[in-house]
Specification:
This protein has 380 residues and is α/β, with parallel strands linked by helices. 37% of the residues lie in helices and 19% in strands. A hairpin with a 4-residue loop joins strand 6 and strand 7 (180-186). Helix 7 (227-233) crosses helix 12 (336-349).
């Protein structure tokens, strides 16, 4: 599959556009199912991805939210998808089991305001619609298969609080199991104190039209390779280091149509925010955490040299060493090198040697968009 991009993509940053240049009109994401806030004031967001089924239940608290309950299970829904084009029986059964647990949590907390979504594996599989109907029939849960654009949009919203006041050009990357989303945002016309709030307001859609005081999406791309699909593509390469190098260079080739890849950018005022299990695992490894601590990882800034050091340690360990390394964890050791290959490719091509680590993603973006819709969050 080729990377997905918006129609008419290829614009340069605002500073490179003349007053007569054309831009695509704002795009809107598919609206969420209209659910009413529960009497308990709780909201839920569920993300069924290529690798994992994850859910958060939270209540609004000021300008953010407080997590009440959570769930995460590696279901490997996309196992075998690259070869067959279909979701397989065992992954679907694992997913149904996980979703039954989610349903029981939703019922126990009496949550009625929720958004339950599926991403790349279900976007690609020929039998995904049948599976979504089976999920509803057997669990009562109604899942939406969201577009790559909405997935990218929600990743951006989830990272709003990590945007620095000095940031004028922002790249948000979200490395998933089946796809990787990249969004380039020009914040140069937004007053520095308003930049975080402006990112939060992007939950209604991406705008590619230059407007004073508003963020502009220069370009976005969804590359249909994530940690699971990229790993499977190169599974027949026996040498560990060679497989890593091939994965990294292959992924970089997929960025050829992403317009900022070719445009010269200033280092000053440029920020990359990365959200994914790969990135948080690399950060935890750098910190030497044998037990994961979100408070130490979320918001951490790492340099390219520090990331490269950790990835070098992973390579030196080899497959068996990575399996036993408590910093990586049993759920991630088979996919950490494909994720690291993507991360190293991204750090190689952008004009910065720093990465802001975000332990957040689609679920957080869904919660923010639901709560903003209902007006239950305090103003930025």
């Amino acid at each position: 599959m080729t990377p997905e991009r918006p129609a008419g993509a290829g614009a340069l940053p605002n500073s490179a556009q003349g007053p007569g240049s054309s831009a695509r009109a704002p795009t809107s994401a598919k609206p969420p199912r209209q659910t009413k806030p529960s009497r308990a004031g709780l909201y839920a967001a569920l993300d069924l991805g290529t690798n994992s089924c994850r859910m958060l239940i939270a209540r609004p608290k000021g300008a953010a939210f407080e997590v009440i309950d959570s769930f995460s299970k590696a279901v490997e829904l996309g196992a075998g998808l690259e070869q067959s084009g279909r979701l397989s029986y065992r992954p679907m059964e694992r997913t149904l089991h996980a979703l039954r647990i989610c349903r029981s949590k939703l019922e126990r907390h009496q949550v009625s305001a929720m958004r339950l979504v599926a991403t790349e594996a279900c976007r690609r599989a020929r039998n995904s619609r049948d599976f979504i109907r089976k999920i509803q029939r057997e669990t009562g849960l109604r899942l939406d298969i969201i577009t790559a654009e909405e997935e990218a949009q929600l990743a951006v919203v989830s990272c709003a609080s990590l945007v620095a006041r000095t940031t004028e050009q922002l790249l948000v990357i979200d490395i998933g199991g089946g796809s990787t989303e990249l969004v380039w945002i020009d914040l140069s016309t937004v007053p520095p104190p308003a930049r975080r709030g402006a990112i939060m307001d992007m939950h209604t859609g991406f705008s590619r039209t230059p407007r004073p005081g508003k963020p502009m999406v220069v370009d976005w791309i969804s590359v249909p390779q994530g940690v699971a699909t990229l790993r499977d593509m190169f599974a027949d390469v026996e040498d560990d280091a060679a497989r890593f190098a091939l994965m990294s260079w292959y992924f970089e080739e997929q960025l050829a149509e992403f317009s900022p890849y070719h445009a010269a950018q200033e280092r000053e005022g440029f920020q990359i925010i990365g959200t994914s299990g790969t990135i948080t695992t690399v950060a935890a490894s750098y910190l030497g955490l044998r037990r994961y601590d979100r408070n130490k990882v979320d918001g951490l800034t790492m340099t390219s040299a520090q990331i490269e050091q950790v990835v070098g340690e992973y390579l030196a360990l080899g497959p068996e060493g990575r399996r036993r390394d408590p910093r990586i964890g049993r759920d991630r050791h088979t996919q950490i090198m494909s994720g690291a290959a993507i991360l190293m490719a991204l750090m190689r091509v952008w004009p910065t040697d720093r990465l802001s680590v975000a332990d957040r993603g689609l679920r957080e973006g869904l919660l923010y968009s639901l709560m903003t819709r209902d007006g239950v969050l305090r103003a930025h």
